[in-house]
Design a protein that fits this description.
single chain, mainly alpha, 2 helices, 0% strand
Length: 92
């Protein structure tokens, strides 16, 4: 198994590129073939599909926000009960 040695790693954990050469004609041709294959197998979505995706994502976002609020309120409630119990115990 080969290992990759990272040189010139900075604080963002990036390293020098493998190559700075421009793509060859063969690489450009292969890129075009790949893009054509992807578009054939998974065509771009229509405007209606995009609107439906946005609607679904908005509903999911609202559900997650509601869940986060419910969990937050529950944790705050538990915290307040614990603090209140500690306060009562310290008075006795």
């Amino acid at each position: 198994m080969s290992s990759i040695t990272l040189t010139n790693v900075n604080k963002y954990a990036t390293c020098d590129p493998i190559s700075v050469a421009h793509p060859t004609q063969m690489e450009l041709q292969q890129s075009k073939l790949l893009v054509n294959f992807i578009e054939l197998k998974d065509p771009p979505s229509t405007l209606e599909e995009d609107k439906l995706k946005e609607k679904i994502l908005e509903r999911l976002r609202a559900m997650v926000q509601e869940w986060v609020r419910a969990v937050g309120v529950k944790k705050v409630s538990i915290y307040l009960v614990c603090c209140f119990e500690c306060f009562i115990d310290s008075k006795n």
